[in-house]
Amino acid sequence: MNKDNEFNILFTSSGRRVSLIKLFKEVYHTNNISGKIITADLKNSAPSAFISDKHYIVPRVDNGNYLLELLKICEKENINLVIPLIDTELLLLSENRHLFEELDVKLFVSGTLLNEIACDKVKTYQFFKENNIETPKVFSNEELTEKIYEFPLLIKPYNGSSSKGVTKVHTEKELSFFKDYIANSIVQEFIEGIEYTVDVMVDFYGNIKTIVPRRRIETRAGEVSKGITKKDIDIIHAVEKVINVLPEPIGCLTLQCFKKDNGDITFIEINPRFGGGIPLSIKAGANFPLWTINSTKGEKFLEEDFSWKENLTMLRYDEAIFIERLRDVN
After folding, report:
1. Per the database record, which ranges form the ATP-grasp domain (predicted)?
2. Residue 16 CA to its chain's centroid (Å)
3. pLDDT at 327 over 80
4. What CATH number did the domain enclosing 90 receive?
5. 137: exposed, middle or buried (Cβ count in 10 Å: 0-12, 13-18, 19+)
6. 231, 310 in Cβ contact below 8 A?
7. What is the CA 12 to chain-centroid distance, rounded?
8. Mean confidence (pLDDT) of the chain
9. Burial of 141 (0-12, 13-18, 19+ CB in 10 A)
10. What's this model's pTM, rounded to 2 decimal places?
11. Sheet of strand 167-169, all strands in order from the earlier edge strand to the far edge
12. Which of 149, 172, 189 is the last residue of a domain?
């Protein structure tokens, strides 16, 4: 494929990620980058379909033909980079990186082991403990049977995302019910403190470009709806420690943590993809889109960049796209 004169990105599971795609398009325009932004999703009614240059309908991630369809799009559209936007396809893509490399396509996806750690919250807990990183305790079945815990507790699916199924329980009756009601549940120590989502940019060689802590003011359906950037040095150093021990981190990673009243930082999740609140970090001056393109072209991040603005606040609200008919798709 001839890719010398343009840079084409395929965003998969693009759904509602309109703000992120718009920000990438702005970087194309500002930096005179030639190329297309292609989206792929289950539906032709995905809002992102009306922002991208071309949209493709693809099967569900768990469909046996999903990878084949992505590869067809990559070949047809001369794609340089694939950026997945939901958790459920990260492991699948990382395991099949070689298929894309054969087409000279890069994946903005961390290594397989990292995705295995991130997609299973029990493995995430074990990883944090093995590396002496503070994290809420996950109780074993034996500990639950012997009632070695204190309320409140948190119950959630070990393989969940977007806070689906996350439930705080206060009594034995609630614990008994929700432990069975929530599929694939784990029971976790409940942590109080100020919650942060932290965006990190890492090149294909593991070098960190920036770390942007975002204090979560308000969330909606598990995604930040109000947030503010904070140059909290303690959080930045703690996140840097995590990134440095992760196996093969690549691209944008989003970590979640709490800062307790005593200053301790407790990590709860690793999401190795662009998070829903990433537009705040980008608007603050952390140029994730441009860094994404440059790193794909082979640039190493030899210098970190913390010039982004502190105390920039994001207040998200719903927007609508109005169309007379659904856009034709390929």
Report:
1. 125-297
2. 14
3. no
4. 3.40.50.20
5. middle
6. yes
7. 13
8. 94
9. exposed
10. 0.93
11. 167-169, 153-157, 185-189
12. 189
